[in-house]
Amino acid sequence: MITNLLSTMFFLAGMIGLIVSVIIICKKENILQNLLLSLCLFALSCSCIYGLYTSSLHFYPNEASPLKSLAFIVAPCAYLYTKKTTNPSLVFKWYHSLNFLPALLYLIYTVTSNSQIANPNFWVFNIVDYTTDFYAFNILVSLVWLLYAYTQALIKFSNTDKLVLLSADKTLWLKCFSFLILSLFIGLFIQKAYGLSFGVNFNIINDVTISAILLGAGYMAFYKPFVFFDTKNLHEDYLKKLEVITEAPSINEAEHCKAQAIVLSDKKILEYSAQIEKALIDKPFLKKGFVIRDLSELTDIPVHHLSHFINSYYNLHFQDFINKKRIEYLIQQLDDSEWKSLSLEGQAWAVGFKSRTTFFRAFTKLMGKSPSEYLNSLNEAKLKNYSATA
């Protein structure tokens, strides 16, 4: 009874995985990372269905043996998918394709050998007078796959240094996906190294792990598709986190300033003012994610002194101070012909704002009116001036 239930679950998981692998690639959003994920899910689905088929019928069809080469792409696809998702600016080079060379070699061998399952010593080409231990080869392959999974598990899913902020659901998906991939290859390595010496059926454990990955991907694809397709429509959690980072002053920074009674001399005030103005000449605030530590490094002013100085001298929190500089720069560029070709949202991105919502809130807060109202008032003033001169 339990065996039948497990077999049904494995089959359903395999079919769901195949469907999801097609859906996420057909959407044509986040195309590179979703292609990698699609290949990974497709390979796992085929493995799940193929394993169920062979265990039920108790024989291995030679025609299907090329599918075994798909096992070689699971680890590199999962690793590269996670790496690309957490670092969208990553550009893939030609050498990244070397990750798929073992799968290609295995596929070529099985196809050119009349779809026979690979001979234990096939990689020696039978010309070399040398006997290879197939057991050792299996251990080596499993160890390499485990190394991929371990490296994947070390990737940071929210990296503020690279200006990457993922939604809570996407972070959860990546963590679970990486954990299950790592668990799968740990199980495979133990299975290859020790076989059944532990008295544990690792085939069932591995099938359950694969099914969990496929069913998890299916849940995300049907109930939380923004996890895979969030290029244009940012998730609400993402915007909330983004606004906290870009708009709100650091809680630690605010507490630090309150805890210390900082008194700056007139000489120090003039010195800090000159240092800040000099640092802002190159407009570093146009960089997305520009924070108080960045300005501290540019000016050599301690963070808590810098925060206190901006609060007292400019009567603004640091982020409002930076947003004001961005808005002032934007207003200066409004008469530029190239600048006019940009949409308002494009202009906001160009001056360092990370989202339309953040830009509108900052503009309204600092200028007392929305961007459209401000532009209308500028146009009306220009018309009045034109009429007066005419």
Describe this entry's structure for a reader.
The protein has about 400 residues and is mainly alpha-helical. It folds into two domains: about 1-235, Rhopdopsin 7-helix transmembrane proteins (Up-down Bundle); about 240-390, Homeodomain-like (Arc Repressor Mutant, subunit A), CATH 1.10.10. It contains 17 helices and no strands. The chain has helices at about 1-25, 30-55, 70-85, 100-110, 135-155, 170-195, 200-225, 235-245, 250-260, 265-280, 290-300, 305-315, 320-330, 335-340, 345-350, 355-365, 370-390. α1 packs antiparallel against α2 (about 30-55). It is elongated, with a radius of gyration of 29 Å. The model is unreliable at about 115-130 and about 230-260 (pLDDT under 50). Keywords: DNA-binding, Membrane, Transcription, Transcription regulation, Transmembrane, Transmembrane helix. It comes from Flavobacterium suzhouense. This is Helix-turn-helix domain-containing protein.
Residue runs with pLDDT of under 50 for 5 or more positions: 115-132, 231-260
- Let me know the number of strands: 0
What characterizes the major β-sheet? none
The total tally of domains equals 2
CATH architecture of the largest domain: Up-down Bundle
For the record, give the distance between the C-alpha atoms at the N and C termini, rounded to a whole number: 93 Å
Tally the helices: what do you get? 17
- Helical amount: 55-70%
CATH-defined topology of the largest domain? Rhopdopsin 7-helix transmembrane proteins
| Subunit arrangement of the protein | single chain
Mean pLDDT: 76
Radius of gyration: 29 Å
Name of the CATH class of the largest domain: Mainly Alpha
Molecular shape? elongated
* Global structural class: mainly alpha
How much strand? Answer: under 5%
Element pattern in H and E: HHHHHHHHHHHHHHHHH
